[in-house]
Amino acid sequence: MTRVEDKFLKLAKAGLPIKDELVIDAHTHLGGYINLYHIPFGDIEGILGQLDRLGIDKICTFSFAGVNSDFTVGNNLIAEAVREHSDRIVGYTTLNANYPHEWMSELERCRKLGLKGIKIICEYQGRSTEKTDFSSVYQYANDHHAVMINHYWGSPQFLEGLAEKYPCICFIIGHYSTEYAEVLRRRRNVYQCTCAALMYGEIERLLKLVDAKKIVYGSDLTDLDGPFGLAPILYAKISEEDKTKILGINMQKILDEYEV
Questions:
Q1: Spans of all domains in the chain
Q2: Which of 119, 125, 183, 230 has its CA 20 to 30 A from that of 194?
Q3: C-alpha dihedral over 111, 115, 117, 123, to 10 degrees?
Q4: What architecture is domain 7-257?
Q5: What is the pTM of this model?
Q6: Could you tell me if 93 and 115 are in contact, meaning their C-beta atoms sit under 8 angstroms apart?
Q7: Which residues lie closer than 8 Å to 52 by C-beta, 6 or more apart?
């Protein structure tokens, strides 16, 4: 049986940007990094050029430097990008799990610079999310109705406990996984990002477990090439309505509801 192609699949096959639909990439990086695929040093103009080529309206972004180098330098880079392109870039403050004495001052500093969300990535910093006492950060995020994205949230039980204790935080699971399906179904403030869902059928498998309204699109740009993140959604054998939700509507609702 011949597959009926929706508008997203037709555009993808034609190599055309997505038109007349909101597309927000919820997981991107800025700044220099040794493994960048082709945009020199995370050049912002080069990134915006790729967004235009793909039809991506807006990105939520955080710095590579904040992962395992100087997070202050990295956050400044994000603040500059937000200042220059506030219509297209939502900036997140990246924190290093090894410097708890600097968390609050950095959050306040970056808040004044226009950064809205919070990015943590303990496992890349020699720490564990579950064993790091981020209670002050969680409380800050809860008080400010902020979005928090994490590379790995630990066990489903741990994440569900956080979502229950801090109901005013939007928790985004940074990378594709099906292990948090029950948490996503039970907790309205937990969302799954599609970042690095690169294998055939992964989007379909996720949608069998979780409603499309709980999923946001993410590419891992500039660590990965932008089309890598888009193609699995555009080619997925799911409804056009679900693709529309995942590609942008869901993330826009988050941006509208939370501080961002």
A1: 7-257
A2: 125
A3: -100
A4: Alpha-Beta Barrel (3.20)
A5: 0.94
A6: yes
A7: 17
